[in-house]
């Protein structure tokens, strides 16, 4: 059996970069695989060997953008601040990049495309799996899966509602109020209130200064 040439990662990156530019300029529904192939400088056969349709390509693109921008590694002894930083990175990804516009277009299309809706649901499930350990750290080791799922709904739902539907402000203070609504694992340690101006964490991220 003859083996084909190995897949070129640089070409994959070029295609993803072209897809991002095309989606940003034309929106999700106004973009085509032909436009992406032309901008990437590859043939349509090359593109379709890697991604069988626009839906698959768009999902891989937003997945790579999310993985690059939102890293949930704990950096603070207070698990609430780690959860806050995770939420802030979500907002930054939506507001400061073309990720939000692409996702908004895909949400609308998913209502008419059953295959996209299923793949989109799988994408969101993976994002929730990333956030789950941060929530567990806040709830404590005794938290069950149902508890974690409930908190994720109450935490992420309002954020995405504002980002995707209403366009309302998602300030650090608003995010902090969502975070401190999560039951703290130590009943004797009451959630802190925001005080003063934002401060910088060890990784250089700005977070609201809190009292402990």
Describe this structure in words.
The chain is mainly alpha-helical and 212 residues long. 64% of the residues lie in helices and 6% in strands. It has a two-stranded antiparallel sheet with strand order 1-2. The protein is elongated.
Enter the CATH topology name of the largest domain: Tetracycline Repressor, domain 2
Tell me which CATH architecture of the largest domain applies here. Orthogonal Bundle
Basic shape: elongated
So, the CATH homologous superfamily of the largest domain? Tetracycline Repressor, domain 2
Overall average residue pLDDT: 82
| SSE string, helices as H and strands as E | HHHHHHHHHEE
Taken together, the total number of domains comes to: 2
Structural Rg:
20 Å
* The top level CATH class name of the largest domain: Mainly Alpha
Low-confidence segments, given as residue ranges, are 187-204, 208-212
Oligomeric organization of the protein chains: single chain
Write the layout of secondary structure elements.
Elements: H1 9-26, H2 33-40, H3 44-50, H4 54-69, H5 79-96, H6 99-110, H7 114-139, H8 145-166, H9 172-180, E1 194-200, E2 206-210
Helix pairs in contact: 1-2, 2-3, 4-6, 4-7, 5-7, 5-9, 6-7, 7-8
